[in-house]
Amino acid sequence: MRALRLFIDVIRGALIGVAEIIPGVSGGTIALIVGVYGTLIGSAGHLVRGVVRGVTDGVRGRGFAAAKQHCAQVQLRVLVPVAVGMVVAVLVAARLLAPLIDAHPEETRALFAGLIVVSLIVPIRMVGGRWTAREVLAAVAAAILTFGLTSIPSAPTADPNLLVVVLAAAVAICALVLPGVSGSFLLLTVGLYAPTLEAVNDRDLAYIGAFALGAVLGLSLFVSGLEWLLEHKHRITLAIMTGLMVGSLRSLWPWQGETGALLPAGDNVGLAVGMFAIGIVIVAVLIVVESALVRRRVADGEDVLEPARPAT
């Protein structure tokens, strides 16, 4: 049973890692779908606070008791296999998927749109019950905002300064903890998508190190705030997440110009519709499988697909 759970968590991490490579697809969305979103957010928050308290309390001579208390709540049995799956998937996907996206952009965007459309069921179910007018308005506003952001023309690729890489990574990594926002698309918008894929494929340690530093800074500043929102403003936060996911669909319209401008449907409409349907089926199957696993207590994820139950 433990080996099966470990394998499942590695696969979950791999799916999140692949999503992080694909512009328009949010790693946070996939984390929601596969049932580790709450665990990742909670563990990352405790890890960040543990490190910060360890540094500040150590300097002040207060000991490390508070830091150890936070670190003890990090669910390493989930976090480690998920992280391993993510790293392996990013390395493989950067090598295999990037050329596929370049060669078949319309088909792949249609596939990704199907993934996002059906995944809307996840945050909607997490809100639970009937939506209030305030929650609907918040979702609509978030959708409009995301639609506007994804309408920004893509910047041309350039040889970036490492400081720019740090800042971009700090923003893009937030997509890992914010469903509906694509980190890869944010990199694409600022002209760092192709350089980042190239750095991963070429094992450019300076670039990768700068990106990792930005990611750590971004998570340190962002995770705790989002965790607080999910705990104290649960419904409205998830309603906004739903709107973000709806608005992100604009970036996945299959027919686009080089700068992201929307174009009329082309000749391969049938193929695009077919890929869209495949995307819907893939996520629907993931949701069904995840629900079955949760019911059987094989995998974690009660905080995503089912209401949390008190410990017994």
UniProtKB/TrEMBL annotation:
It holds the Pfam family VCA0040-like. InterPro entries: VCA0040-like. The chain crosses the membrane at residues 21-40, 78-98, 110-131, 137-155, 162-193, 205-229, 269-289. Signal peptide: none annotated. It comes from the Bacteria. Keywords: Membrane, Transmembrane, Transmembrane helix. This is DUF368 domain-containing protein. It comes from Cryobacterium melibiosiphilum. The lineage of its organism: Bacteria, Bacillati, Actinomycetota, Actinomycetes, Micrococcales.
